[in-house]
Amino acid sequence: METQGPNTRAPVVAAFDAATGVREPVEFGIAASDVTGAPLIIAVVHTGDEESSLEQLRADLQRRGLDEVEIRTFKDRTAARGLARALDEVQPALIVLGSSKRSAIGSVFVGTTA
Q: pLDDT tens digits, residue range 11-42?
């Protein structure tokens, strides 16, 4: 487990679902990182073959000049378990998750991962 140094800010962690490619948590994480000055780590739980979506994310971040954003992959059977491991390892100040696909437009439904 990595510990934070005295002059190091705890990071913002944004969850990215590479299977769907949904970017809202990443965009919110970028904004939170900009406002707080904390580093951003994008956590991806690898459950199968999501490489093309990850490559698109990396290319988009590079095109936007966000080279300091770190992408970490956590291999697990479920998103919830993989994200729990990410939180234990990274010890973030803030974690950004997306809402469930079952949410109605204009509302938020907290799914089992959250």
A: 999 999 888 888 899 999 999 999 999 999 99
Token pair recorded at residue 38: 């904390």
Cβ within 8 Å of residue 53, ≥6 positions away: 18, 19, 20, 21
Residue 6 within a domain: no
Residue 56: inside a domain: yes
Number of domains in the chain: 1
Question: Tokens for 17?
Answer: 């679902």
Query: Which amino acid, 48?
Result: G
Length of the chain: 114
Query: Which string of b and e fits 30-43 if b means at least 16 CB within 10 Å?
Result: bebbeeeebbbbbb
Domain that holds residue 35: 12-96
Instruction: Return the sign of the alpha-carbon dihedral for residues 22, 25, 31, 33.
Output: negative
Above 80 in pLDDT, residue 81? yes
- Alpha-carbon span 74 to 40, nearest angstrom: 16
